[in-house]
């Protein structure tokens, strides 16, 4: 039996290594996005600095390990068997959640997962103990409050979710003040960010940047290097007392010294803001590792200590040996922390997922327009309307002169961003300093804040204050934020319930259930890795749009836009041909599942065309205005006709799905066999259009097919009246023929518009 427990512990440790790699790969955006979004340095430089911070934070994170030991449960009332059930359930659930959320493309948080998984597993064992009448040493019955560390658990949960609101509000307020001080046009590194070349005085700009840099560096040093490290072995009792007695002197002195130093460096035209952003990246990476390391290795290392205690004192009674040793503070050997730091650094440097991490927060907080990842929702539209009404009311209360002056400070149109940058260095510095300070503060209080939540909400608050959410993008950005936050709450609920069920299963299923759970976890890990490899391919259209957005040459933008529109049309036509064939076959052969799948595909294609149209309209603003007006009519004819082809499939598919779903009589084979011949010709015509065949040939053949379909439609109508045919099935079939005619008509308009657009 001891050998089986040893196998479980080894599995937990192996899974911890995997969690470290995946966790760092997924969460790298938390501390990289600001530096990358502002383009302050090369990617390799940013990653190197972040790696140093990650290693330092991991090596000094011992204090957070107590959360996994006794932060959620009271282990003195849990047996070794109970604890191993909880820990294995936590790790298996973590793998399942990772697989599910990655498949759905929803955001998740390792901190929230770990906390609510521990809570769910411990809650399951606590209920079982209460049901069996568990008692304390004095014979009194144990309650839920005795078995769970409810006070600490509530404080942890509240800190996680309160940090969302606090991070958003602080980010908005601090960025608003920073923008009032700097505006979007300021002198930095001896150059200006104003399009017209206007520059403020060297003294004024250096002083502002110096004070801003001094405050930023002081905040980082205090919260991270002093307050964040007060529980590490580097801090002696004498040093702690000295810091406590001279807190305000240290803070005030730091602000004064660093402000003077930064002012002098700025006056010497050195990149002060760049240094602040890179220092903030280091600080946030260090805070991330110090705070989040417990999410990855806290449970496995606690399981290892429990196993060592059981082997030394357990007398082979796994269900009778209580885990009193876990009530003590964590004394994690430095070698484990250093090893974890090495794994995290290697994952950050070499992981392809980390190098190609999807920067959702950058896309939602960028200053300029671009491809919007999310659609619009009713809640978002209501919030936008309500916010505009409130803003209009508040603006009316502000004197017009003050209002005009404030608006002038937020005029982003006159600013120049670095090539490829999503926002400027001022906002990047605010993002990093605030997020790092909040996470470090939570770490010092032994509250595992979610770095994902904090960094994301700070970035959203600063982008809102910067008026990056304009009327054309606000509803999409708010929908995105609500989707992300909704994913967080789903994470918490699913983690709790799933771990609760897994823990119950492991408890009663014993080693058989544990073996099955381990096998399932391994299978899901492999499948998740393979899925990521398939999905992590950037489409050619996305690459073209990215080149358009970051190009300043109008002629080049026109060439790229033509390529983007042509590529979009051809890809969509190919998908239309495939869906049309699959849908009609499924209807004739009564394949309900395929019909339902095609309905989903058609809806996704409709949304994709809408998304591509928005991107291409944005791209048209970057070409010559006269050319844009000239080509605009033909572009809209092309894209709207393409959309009509998809709507034709939608109008065709819904009645077919309902008909087959109701198990109504099928179309007689005589009719659909004759139609299939014409359908195949339509598909061939669409494929010929994809191969850029001569427009005259396409239009001529389309006219012939439309005429054939029109004659066939009249034949069907005659047979319905003259013969005893099933009205239900023939009506749906007639609709299918009519929509096929409409698809041909829309194809002709699509190709004509594309031909004129490309001329």
What does this structure look like?
With 759 residues, the chain is an all-alpha fold. The protein folds into two domains: 2-467 and 476-535, no CATH class; 540-758, Phosphate transport system protein phou homolog 2, domain 2 (Methane Monooxygenase Hydroxylase, Chain G, domain 1, Up-down Bundle), CATH 1.20.58. The chain has helices at 2-38, 43-59, 66-71, 80-104, 110-131, 144-147, 150-182, 202-227, 237-245, 247-267, 272-313, 334-350, 352-355, 360-365, 378-397, 400-409, 425-444, 451-465, 474-535, 540-549, 554-588, 592-620, 625-661, 669-690, 695-722, 727-758, and strands at residues 187-188, 191-192. The protein has a two-stranded antiparallel sheet. α7 (150-182) runs antiparallel to α17, α20 runs antiparallel to α21 (554-588) and α24 packs parallel to α26 (727-758). The longest helix has 62 residues, at 474-535. The protein is flat. 45% of the residues are buried. Residues 356-360 have low confidence and may be disordered.
Oligomerization state of this entry? single chain
Shape: flat
Structural class: mainly alpha
Residue ranges: pLDDT <50 for 5 or more in a row? 356-360
Mean pLDDT: 81
Question: How are the strands of the largest sheet arranged?
Answer: 1-2
- What is the CA-atom radius of gyration, in angstroms? 31 Å
Portion in strands: under 5%
SSE succession: HHHHHHHEEHHHHHHHHHHHHHHHHHHH
C-alpha end-to-end distance: 78 Å
* Strand elements, count: 2
User: Residue share in helices?
Assistant: over 70%
Number of domains: 2
Sheet with most strands: 2 strands, antiparallel
**How large is the count of helical segments?**
26
């Amino acid at each position: 039996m001891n050998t089986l427990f040893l196998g479980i512990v080894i599995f937990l440790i192996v899974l911890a290594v995997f969690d470290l790699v995946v966790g760092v790969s997924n969460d790298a955006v938390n501390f990289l996005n600001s530096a990358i979004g502002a383009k302050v340095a090369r990617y390799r430089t940013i990653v190197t600095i972040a790696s140093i911070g990650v290693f330092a934070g991991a090596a000094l994170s011992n204090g957070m390990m107590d959360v996994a030991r006794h932060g959620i449960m009271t282990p003195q009332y849990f047996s070794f068997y109970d604890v191993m059930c909880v820990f294995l359930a936590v790790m298996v659930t973590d793998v399942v959640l990772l697989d599910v959320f990655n498949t759905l493309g929803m955001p998740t948080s390792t901190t929230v997962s770990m906390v609510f998984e521990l809570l769910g597993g411990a809650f399951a064992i606590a209920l079982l103990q209460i049901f069996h009448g568990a008692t304390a040493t004095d014979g009194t019955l144990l309650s839920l409050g005795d078995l769970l560390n409810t006070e600490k658990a509530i404080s942890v949960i509240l800190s996680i979710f309160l940090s969302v609101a606090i991070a958003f509000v602080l980010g908005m307020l601090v960025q608003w003040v920073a923008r009032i001080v700097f505006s979007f046009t300021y002198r930095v590194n001896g150059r200006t960010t104003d399009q017209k070349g206007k520059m403020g005085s060297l003294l004024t700009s250096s002083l502002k940047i110096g004070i801003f840099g001094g405050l930023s560096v002081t905040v980082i040093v205090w919260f991270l290097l002093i307050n964040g490290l007060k529980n590490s072995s580097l801090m002696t009792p004498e040093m702690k007392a000295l810091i406590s007695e001279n807190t305000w002197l240290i803070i005030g002195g730091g602000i004064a010294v660093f402000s003077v130093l930064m002012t002098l460096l700025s006056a010497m035209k050195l990149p002060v803001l760049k240094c602040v952003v890179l220092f903030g990246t280091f600080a946030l990476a260090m805070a991330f590792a110090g705070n989040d390391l417990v999410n990855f290795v806290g449970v496995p290392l606690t399981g290892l200590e429990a196993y060592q205690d059981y082997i030394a004192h357990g007398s082979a009674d796994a269900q009778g040996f209580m885990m009193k040793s876990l009530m003590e503070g964590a004394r994690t050997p430095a070698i484990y922390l250093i090893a974890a730091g090495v794994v995290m650094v290697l994952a950050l440097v070499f992981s392809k997922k980390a190098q190609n991490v999807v920067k959702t927060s950058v896309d939602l907080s960028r200053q300029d327009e671009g491809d919007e990842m999310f659609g619009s929702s009713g809640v978002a539209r209501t919030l936008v309307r309500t916010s505009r009404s409130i803003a209009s009311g508040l603006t009316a209360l502000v004197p017009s002169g003050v209002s005009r002056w404030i608006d002038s400070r937020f005029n982003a149109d006159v600013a120049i961003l670095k090539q490829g940058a999503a926002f400027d260095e001022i906002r990047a510095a605010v993002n990093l300093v605030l997020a790092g300070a909040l996470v470090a503060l939570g770490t010092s209080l032994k509250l595992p804040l979610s770095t994902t939540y904090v960094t994301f909400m700070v970035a959203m608050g600063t982008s809102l204050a910067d008026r990056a959410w304009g009327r054309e993008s606000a509803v999409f950005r708010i929908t995105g934020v609500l989707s992300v936050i909704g994913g967080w709450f789903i994470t918490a609920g699913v983690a709790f319930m799933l771990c609760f069920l897994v823990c119950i299963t492991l408890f009663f299923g014993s080693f058989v259930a544990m073996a099955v759970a381990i096998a399932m976890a391994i299978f899901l890990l492999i499948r998740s890795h393979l899925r990521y490899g398939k999905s992590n391919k950037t489409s050619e259209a996305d690459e073209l749009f990215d080149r358009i957005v970051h190009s300043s040459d109008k002629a080049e933008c026109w060439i790229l836009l033509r390529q983007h529109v042509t590529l979009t049309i051809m890809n969509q036509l190919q998908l239309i041909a495939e869906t049309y064939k699959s849908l009609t076959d499924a209807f004739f052969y009564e394949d309900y599942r395929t019909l339902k799948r095609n309905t989903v595909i058609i809806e996704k294609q409709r949304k994709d065309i809408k998304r591509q149209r928005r991107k291409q309209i944005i791209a048209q603003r970057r070409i010559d205005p006269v050319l844009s007006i000239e080509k605009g009519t033909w572009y809209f004819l092309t894209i709207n006709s393409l959309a009509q082809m998809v709507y034709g499939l939608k109008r065709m598919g819904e009645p077919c799905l309902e008909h087959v779903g109701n198990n109504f009589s099928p179309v007689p084979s005589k009719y659909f066999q004759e139609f299939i011949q014409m359908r195949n010709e339509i598909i061939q015509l669409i494929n010929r259009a994809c191969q850029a065949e001569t427009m005259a040939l396409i239009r001529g053949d389309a006219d012939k097919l439309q005429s054939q379909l029109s004659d066939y439609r009249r034949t069907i109508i005659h047979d319905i009246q003259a013969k005893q045919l099933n009205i239900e099935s023939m009506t749906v079939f007639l609709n299918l023929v009519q929509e096929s005619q409409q698809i041909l008509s829309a194809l002709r308009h699509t190709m004509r518009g594309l031909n004129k657009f490309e001329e």
